[in-house]
Amino acid sequence: MDWSLYRCGRVGHVTYAPDEHHLRHHMRGETGAAELWQCLRCGSYVTGEPHGTGPAADAPAIRRGKEIRGDLILKLFAIERGIRFIIFGAVAYGIWRFANSRSIAQAINKDIPLVREFAKQLGFTLNHALLEKIQSLLHFSSSNLKLLALGVTGLAIVSGIEAFALWQAKRWGEYFAMIVTSLGLPFEIYELSKAVTITKIILFVLNLLLVGYLVYSRRLFGARGGKEAYEARLRADSILDEAEKAAARRQGGPAPAADLASSATAEPGSLAKPAVSEQPDPLVAPDSPAYADSQAGPADPAAAAPAPDVAVAGRTAPSGQPAALPREPGGPS
């Protein structure tokens, strides 16, 4: 799946006109009716004026590919934090109302009538005797209930901020979510040591996954190179970086130093010959006679010339000419 194209289809393209001529030439196109600019996210050429212009270094850092997939994973965690916000908010509201009421029955009958209806749909009946029994077991004063409501309200607010920050995928929000979630892990471990339930295990695993994912993928607190390495990866995957490489290929890079030296010594109109290695053969021992002969070379140029062939009487080659055998150098003529 092309995540970049998926994001552009949902939120629109992002175009930018760099001041550098070689980059502008690559990212700009035109038809007979309109001007085209390359999208910084999906790489498609779209019509219209660019959304921004300036030096390439000032271009916005756009997440592409796997980074967009990572944002979707964070949105899943944001939804989970949003559900916590709703639950904590509802509990805090109920506690506040109960703290300002004379009895649980009054709070349900007057301030939270939906609770009784919801209980009926589940097959339960809440009567006044049962509610008064619960009240006698709780033994909470109004001041203690207000403190409890204040704490639950704080949890709801923190969960709401986490949900917003993770949904926006901002770096400050990632730090905030990671720190707040990490602070709650020791308390969750303590609760698991007292009693293990499916709900506690699921919440603990989700929080542990969120912390690990943020630290590893977003490189928080200097992990895997930190913020500099994370931004460098974004720049390396950018459309502007691809345009820079394409412009270098189109213009042609500088020739290697060895090729320049060989072409400079070649005569005009001739091809440069490849350099021949002067290194000795590693398969020949330095103290062997063969090594000395290979280093010395032929003493007499005539000795290096191939010996002429000698015709052999009474023998014919397949072509009908007399057969010839090579003559040994220095042998009888």
Q: Which descriptors apply to this entry?
A:
about 325 residues; 3-stranded antiparallel sheet; two-stranded parallel sheet
Separation of termini? 82 Å
User: Which sequence of SSEs, written as H and E, runs from N to C?
Assistant: HEHEEEEHHHHHHHHHHHHEE
- Radius of gyration, in Å, reads 41 Å
Q: Would you count the extended β strands for me? A: 7
Percentage of helical residues? 55-70%
pLDDT below 50 for ≥5 consecutive residues: which ranges?
254-286, 297-305, 307-319
% residues in beta strands: 5-15%
Describe this structure as you would to a colleague:
With 333 residues, this protein is mainly alpha-helical. Among the domains are: 3-58, no CATH class; 66-231, no CATH class. The chain contains 14 helices and 7 strands. It has helices at 3-11, 21-27, 66-99, 104-111, 113-121, 128-138, 142-168, 171-194, 198-217, 226-236, 239-251, 257-265, 289-296, 301-304, and strands at 17-18, 28-30, 35-38, 45-47, 53-54, 309-316, 322-326. It has a 3-stranded antiparallel β-sheet. Helix 3 (66-99) packs antiparallel against helix 7 (142-168) and helix 8 (171-194) runs antiparallel to helix 9 (198-217). It starts with a helix and ends in a 7-residue tail after the last strand. Residues 254-286, 297-305 and 307-319 have low confidence and may be disordered.
